[in-house]
Amino acid sequence: MYRTHNCGELRKSDINSKVKLSGWVQRIRNKGFLIWIDLRDRYGITQLFINSENVSDDVIKTTKLLGREFVISIDGKVIEREAYNNKIATGEIEISVDSIEILNKSEIPPFTIEDESDGGDELRMKYRYLDLRRNPIKNNLIFRNDLSFEIRKYLKDNGFIDIETPYLIKSTPEGARDFVVPSRINLGEFYALPQSPQTFKQLLMISGFDKYFQIVKCFRDEDLRADRQPEFTQIDCEMSFVNQDDVISTFEGLIKYLFKNCLNINLKDFKKISYGEAIEKYGTDKPDTRFEMDFFNLSEKAKGTGFKIFDESEAIYGFNVKSGAELSRKEIDSYVDWVKRPQIGALGLIWIKHNMDGSIKSSIDKFFDADQLKNLTNSSPGDISFIISGNKKKTLTQLGALRIEVAERFGLRNNKEFEAIWVTDFPLFEWDEESKSYHSMHHPFTSPVDGVINKDPSKTFANAYDLVINGNEIGGGSIRIHNKELQQKVFSILGFSEKEADDQFGFLLNAFKYGAPPHGGIAFGLDRLVAVMNNDETIRDYIAFPKNNSGRDVMIDSPSKIDNQQLDDLNIKLN
Amino acid sequence: MYRTHNCGELRKSDINSKVKLSGWVQRIRNKGFLIWIDLRDRYGITQLFINSENVSDDVIKTTKLLGREFVISIDGKVIEREAYNNKIATGEIEISVDSIEILNKSEIPPFTIEDESDGGDELRMKYRYLDLRRNPIKNNLIFRNDLSFEIRKYLKDNGFIDIETPYLIKSTPEGARDFVVPSRINLGEFYALPQSPQTFKQLLMISGFDKYFQIVKCFRDEDLRADRQPEFTQIDCEMSFVNQDDVISTFEGLIKYLFKNCLNINLKDFKKISYGEAIEKYGTDKPDTRFEMDFFNLSEKAKGTGFKIFDESEAIYGFNVKSGAELSRKEIDSYVDWVKRPQIGALGLIWIKHNMDGSIKSSIDKFFDADQLKNLTNSSPGDISFIISGNKKKTLTQLGALRIEVAERFGLRNNKEFEAIWVTDFPLFEWDEESKSYHSMHHPFTSPVDGVINKDPSKTFANAYDLVINGNEIGGGSIRIHNKELQQKVFSILGFSEKEADDQFGFLLNAFKYGAPPHGGIAFGLDRLVAVMNNDETIRDYIAFPKNNSGRDVMIDSPSKIDNQQLDDLNIKLN
User: Fold this and answer.
1) Which chain B residues are closer than 8 Å to A104 by Cβ?
2) Minimum-distance CB partner of A210 among B41, B507, B511
3) Which site among A112, A190, A200 would you substitute to test the B interface, given the most B Cβ atoms closer than 10 Å to its Cβ?
4) Which of A556, A566, A567, A571 is the mutation pick for testing B, counting most B CBs within 10 A?
5) At what angle are helices B392-409 and B329-340 packed, to 10 degrees?
């Protein structure tokens, strides 16, 4: 036996008990003949106390060998501390050590195992197993574990069945790029790893499992942006005999349940906002709604006054910032510079300060008088208005990014506050200028509203919904098509020939012939949900063994070359 | 809204309620102007009743269009049945239909959706989504869902943390063949899909997560035997600061908990039997111990009597079958034929009948007299003894197979009875004649007993344990090596050069340098566990979308060819 207790559980009530503990040496303080050791495990830290005058030579000899991160096991007696440490749960006691055994040595770790480590990103990724010893990362994974369990509990209590779908499936050229897996038994053929279990969960609905869920890994071979992973985890759900409101109410329930049970936070009812309104008001389909700064649209109002920049712009949008009139010229300039950065790409930023005394100062006061400017922005004394003009889509996106930046700088993105909304009524199709073809905004299985496609496909709305929390897209779903003819029509609008549709999705089209029920569902990004619930915007520290931005696991050094024999067995050659 | 109730929940107490149901048409009985429809969903069947004289023409018209597996939605009133059907939970009521809507049509399904289907294996695999509608398969998946939840609950209650490990890892030529995944971002390099998260869970122990579990897909690119799948699900567990008894008691607790909570069966304490004893007594390391028929060893005793077959055999083993003396000559011959089949490969089977009157009849009574034979077998009146001789390993295996066959035919493999045992003390290494090298019997991370390797590696025992239920291997595990030098020594016995060991497992060897705790664990085959708990020996019907014996998913037709563009992007060519 290695321990009677863990390092986080002994209390004053245990005083005088004989105990055995095992763990890692966090710190050693050696004051001559008195030695204190902080012993650490997953559950906490317990202080060990060694009085050289009262212990055997063996204990002293062993103690002298110890270093940081050694694994030891000790026997001893629980005693009261002289001075309590109320920063840790075991702070009222310590262990008077009788015997000590080194279970394993440790070299000096390449960075400190403390809440704030001195290790750089690459180093900590390479020694991820040591980074995981640090409390912040450890606690992230424990939180994730708790959250996953609560997700399962809520869904089970609501009648959902957890069903595993296959990982070795079929490649479809549609959408993002698949990871493929060469088959050795079926030479020249490939499996693909699922980007999501979408078609399988639809087949399960056709099978009659009217409530399905799965917490499942998904894979996308995309060029990795800062916060994407080639493999990620989805909470994947589907229901039959439901409409949009049924799905939304079930999963609003889930999210509220999770915030209540994991964070003790009561979320307000989620507002619904249409895609069109979100773009028009916030310049994004995943707005952070914890603060105002809704856009105003000057595209009509501000034109025809002879101010060339406005007159020649397709669109003119702006928003007011409370207390913004206090910004210094330097601060204002830094916003102007910020929107001009290539990542944002605005040509400029117009600002109008509405001072407390009612006076106006603006970057365009040569072209408009004070009343005109007040009238345009409808601002109150103390506000500053920011305005961007140009191509409509770009203008809205740029202004949306600025809105978030302003909120950051003004401290409006309150860490303690969570606001969840549903975004609905997305377009079903997006026109892609480059390929001159329609793409699905969600995926090709999304039902149009009322099951009908407009003569002009671009004017068709999707029966789809996204969940957004604090400006992060956490999940998305839709009512699906369950009718073969409608599904074929969508494939044809997307440019599939009948043969292509059949080759790739024949099994689904076929399944629709045998009594497919109306159904719909949703999928949440678990990595993202965990991060957002912890007020974090990067998912990497909520994943035990993440990959870096080149899709590499630098710890195990993967991907890597494989044997020629393996290539031969698979009948493939490197170019 | 599609329904107020499901098809399994209405009772007499609901009589006179107005309800709305949706589901599939299971059966239609048309008795002139009275029509009954069985409406089915996941939860059960509810009978619909249509009296043509009381409903609108619309209802009659729609009803005439219906066929098997149509999806419909109906409104109506709950009424009492004239004659109760006590085979179904809703058998006391039926719904008097007011209106009916066809939600989706169905072609005539390719096989009947009944408990006993008329569809062949291939057909049911191709239309798996229809096969899943059948009660037996549906109930298997629901059982699996329940079991998974209880597994998680037990492990959570015991302090285990569910941590996801990566699916895109590194290929290692050791052991079974990996599925590999070409990387597009790192051209010429490959990920591998995990055969198990073995090294990752060990790293998690080094990270200090002293209790880890995961229900996780694993992958093996092996030539598929009848009941293997290229992807399968493991309950993967690991603990730190434990010895063998700690692991065994934790997971014996899990298995008992599952049998109690999912089947209401109280398992007896699991016996422990060594690998050596299992082979010697049952001819297999996964014995079915629900019945006796332990082997006796005549290798010494029966030699030197001049009977050439015995004298020239390395080994002679047999077992007694209670009531076996009643077997007819024809029945005995069928056992003789059975062991001679190429799958078993015995050269013959010696039998000795010990009749109730004390007389002896035997296939070798020309060579031995009655007393000699009684003395050899130590049988009782009424027994038959079966004996096989030859090469020791083959003899034991053949006799072990015969023991199971006899038990089958004598009805000793009692469906209602479950007996779980631990098999321990496996050899650490197996000598492979073909490659003239040692292999790990479990895997190279298994610790030898007491952490010491015998000078003769083949005489080293592993600190490993398998869980066997009713003759099926359900799980296996071991205490792991946590010391770098010992791990290197094992790699070297297995024929790894230092460089090879470092290339493949350098990250683990490295991790051992920074305070690796003693640790051990176990992994269970979930597919197999579910099947065995349902008295089934094939796992396929406990998996939603299994692959066939060529690793193909015949429903989605995968694996399949991929685009040349995809191959080019990956920089690979088909030979």
Assistant:
1) 482-483, 512, 515-518
2) B41
3) A190
4) A556
5) 140
Whether residues B127 and A103 touch (CB distance < 8 A) is answered with no
* Cβ distance of A231 and B574 shorter than 8 Å: no
Residue in A311, A309, A317 with CA at minimum distance from that of residue A283: A317
Any CB–CB contact under 8 A between B27 and chain A? no
Do A400 and A424 fall into the same domain? no
- Asked if B543 reaches chain A (Cβ–Cβ under 8 Å), the answer is yes
The answer to whether the CB of A190 falls within 8 A of the CB of A180 is yes
Three-state DSSP class for residue B456: coil
Which chain B residues have a beta carbon less than 8 Å from that of A572?
572-575
My answer on whether A211 and A262 are in the same domain is: yes
Instruction: Give the end of a domain, one of B374, B409, B444.
Output: B409
Q: Which residue of B has its CA nearest to A190?
A: B559
- Taking only the tens of pLDDT, chain A with its 575 residues reads 999 999 999 999 999 999 999 999 999 999 888 999 999 999 999 999 999 999 999 999 999 999 999 999 999 999 999 999 999 999 999 999 999 999 999 999 999 999 998 889 899 999 999 999 999 999 999 999 999 999 999 999 999 999 999 999 998 876 789 999 999 999 999 999 999 999 999 999 999 999 999 999 999 998 877 678 999 999 999 999 999 999 999 999 999 999 999 999 999 999 999 999 999 999 999 999 999 999 999 999 998 888 999 999 999 999 999 999 999 999 999 999 999 999 999 999 999 999 999 999 999 989 999 999 999 999 999 999 999 999 999 999 999 999 999 999 999 999 889 999 999 999 999 998 888 999 999 999 999 999 999 999 999 999 999 999 999 999 999 999 999 999 999 999 999 999 999 999 999 999 999 999 999 999 999 999 999 999 998 899 999 999 999 999 999 999 999 988 899 999 999 98
Q: How far apart are CA B550 and CA B223, in angstroms?
A: 8
Which tokens in the block code for residue A46?
């317990």
B514 located within any domain: yes
Looking at the structure, tell me whether residues B538 and B480 fall in a common domain.
Answer: yes
CA distance B210 to chain A (A): 7
Cβ-Cβ contacts under 8 Å, A179 against chain B:
168, 181, 191
A and B: number of Cβ contacts within 8 A: 341
Answer whether A481's CB lies under 8 Å from A442's CB.
no
- Quick check: A235 contacting B, CB < 8 Å? no
Query: Does residue B362 lie in a domain region?
Result: yes
Pairwise CB contact (< 8 Å): A550 & B186: yes
Comparing C-alpha atoms, which of B143, B1, B129, B74 is closest to residue A205?
Answer: B129
pTM: 0.96
Q: Do A391 and A455 sit in the same domain of this protein?
A: no
Rounded to whole angstroms, the Cα distance separating B393 from B539 reads: 29
Chain A interface includes B511 (CB < 8 A)? yes
Where residue A35 sits, what CATH number does that domain have? 2.40.50.140
Instruction: Please check whether residue A574 lies inside any domain of the structure.
Output: no
Question: Measuring CA to CA, which residue among B455, B573, B546 is closest to residue B124?
Answer: B546
Question: Residue B183 domain-assigned?
Answer: yes
Element (DSSP H or E) covering residue B58: helix B57-65
Q: Which of A82, A104, A126 is the last residue of a domain?
A: A104
- Contact partners, residue B44, CB within 8 Å, separation at least 6: B6, B7, B8, B9, B88, B89, B90
Instruction: Give the nearest partner residue to B208 out of A42, A188, A200, using CB atoms.
Output: A42
Q: Identify the CATH number of the domain in which residue A233 sits.
A: 3.30.930.10
- Number of structural domains chain A divides into: 3
Q: Which residue of B has its CA nearest to A217?
A: B167
* Rounded Cα gap, residues A98 and A96, in angstroms: 7
Give yes or no: residues A386 and A447 share one domain. Answer: no
Task: State whether residue B382 sits within 8 Å of chain A by CB.
Answer: no
Domain ranges, residue A314 = 291-409
The answer on A295 and A399 residing in a single domain is: yes
What tokens does A157 get?
């209590």
> Residues 111-130, chain A: which have Cβ within 8 Å of B?
127-130
Residues B267 and B151 in one domain: yes
- CATH code, domain carrying B329: 3.30.1360.30
Residues A267 and A182 in one domain: yes
In chain B, residues 265-324 whose CB comes closer than 8 Å to chain A: none
In eight-state DSSP terms, residue B462 is: B
